[in-house]
Design a protein that fits this description.
Distance between the termini: 52 Å
Helix content: 25-40%
Organism: Mucilaginibacter pocheonensis
Radius of gyration: 19 Å
Order of helices and strands: HHHEHHEHHEEHEEHE
CATH architecture of the largest domain: 3-Layer(aba) Sandwich
Low-confidence stretches: 6-15
Strand content: 15-25%
Protein name: ComF family protein
CATH topology of the largest domain: Rossmann fold
CATH class of the largest domain: Alpha Beta
Shape: globular
Number of domains: 2
InterPro entries: ComF/GntX_DNA_util-trans, PRTase-like, PRTase_dom
Number of strands: 7
Family: Belongs to the ComF/GntX family.
Length: about 230
């Protein structure tokens, strides 16, 4: 019976092959979600080994960040863009959890991230959440949490204003677009805690900065940042 099920699974995979969302190659036996070639050869940043990396530099003189990180470099038309498109717009939530696991494995090598108490996803406005059905940053947080032995707190930081798209805005316009957009519902929960703020892609850092400004109003809070990708 087990052999028969194996043959049936192979037959179905011939008719309806699972494709890697990054490169569109057919997945073979023992490959899960992303093909082996992409898992090894996507453009990793290795920012977990570089305290003074490009993402960290974006927050210098703006908010006090203990450490900042992105898993991949994002380039237009590249495999990471394909991956993120399937993750955000094709309902493939499992991509975020998998990439959270990958990122968490890297971050375990950095002692700063090993002291994280709570992982907080950048929130979507309730109207956008209803439309999409899930918050991609929460999926990423769910993959990170077991690796960092931290708790996901996804109902504390809230987006209270539905903002216009950030695409094609300057850095200043992006920041102005995010002013007074976020609030903390339970600030006492985060007092004297190390919070890891997570998002899918960081470009100018305006959204993360706006969230960080609110979080750093909490007494004793330490802030670090992690994203799936950094858009060059």
């Amino acid at each position: 019976m087990k052999l028969l099920r194996g043959y049936l699974a192979d037959f179905v995979s011939l008719l309806f092959p699972e494709l890697c969302p990054a490169c569109q190659a057919s997945l073979v036996a023992n490959e899960h979600i992303i093909c082996s070639d992409c898992r090894y050869n996507l453009p990793y940043t290795n920012f977990h080994l570089q305290p003074d990396n490009i993402v960290a530099q974006q927050f210098y003189g703006k908010i006090n960040v203990d450490a900042a990180y992105a898993l991949y470099y994002f380039t237009k038309g590249g495999k990471v863009q394909n991956l993120m498109h399937h993750f955000k717009y094709k309902g493939m939530q499992e991509i975020g959890v998998l990439l959270g696991n990958v990122a968490g494995t890297q971050l375990m090598e950095n002692p700063v991230f090993n002291t994280v108490d709570f992982i907080i996803p950048v929130p979507l406005h309730k109207s956008r959440l209803k439309e999409r059905g899930y918050n991609q940053s929460t999926c990423f947080a769910d993959g990170l949490a077991p690796k960092l032995n931290a708790m996901v707190d996804d109902n504390n930081l809230q987006r209270i204003v539905a903002t216009a798209t950030q695409t094609h805005k300057s850095r200043f316009a992006r920041f102005e677009n995010m002013r007074e957009v976020f609030m903390i519902k339970y600030p006492e929960r985060l007092e004297n805690k190390h919070v890891l703020l997570v998002d899918d892609i960081v470009t100018t850092g305006s959204t993360l900065e706006a969230c960080g400004i609110e979080l750093l109003k909490i007494p004793g809070l330490k802030l670090s940042i992690a994203t799936i990708a950094y858009a060059q």
